[in-house]
Amino acid sequence: MTEGIAGKVVVITGASSGLGEAVARHLAAHGARLVLGARRLDRLRALTSELGLCEDAAVRTDVTSCDEVRLLVDHAVGLHGRLDVIINNAGLMPSSPLERLKVADWDRMIDVNIKGVLYGIAAALPHMKAQRGGHIINVSSVAGHKVRPGGAVYAATKHAVRVISEGLRQEVKPYNIRTTVISPGAVESELPGSLTEADIAQGMRDFYEATAIPADSFARMVAFAMSQPEDVDVNEILFRPTRQEF
To answer: H or E segment at 179?
Structure first.
């Protein structure tokens, strides 16, 4: 289902690889007007060139900076006159048992996975309120529904995304803004590469190699939520590989 995507102005964070890149490719193929943010500007520019987007569609963005996320969104509005959708996709997963005291990794997950989503919301809301419409899509995880040993902090950040999204859903009803939180299971991305503990990283790589499904599966979920009529608000999507147990 791809109705209603053509012409929509869409901002995507974490767009230089993985889920963000897959969504950019899928939406560009169906006529969306994209502005892409990520830290790796060289990869963003290569992607925008491949997709036939203008050079201005790539903006170096670190989602741990509220100012940089605001500039990304304001840039999209300056280019296209409005903002229809923001996909707060940037995330990382340096999980480890709490007893290993990887405090710097905890801080990074909180900064990217929670604050990055909040900064995207903060950047988008003024524009969407003014135009009385829009769609905010936040990326959680199966880990936002289930916690397993070694994944407490990551699960906490992804549970926070779900809580924030539900609170946002209730608050933005007066402005005709739709909200969706998408919780993927094992989907091919660079997420396992953010693990810093060698033993856990190897286990996660083995799990993804045996289980993960292509990133385009996530892109189709985004397209499904975006394609609904304006009076339909798809609030939450949880999906996994068929073979994934937890």
So the answer is: strand 177-184
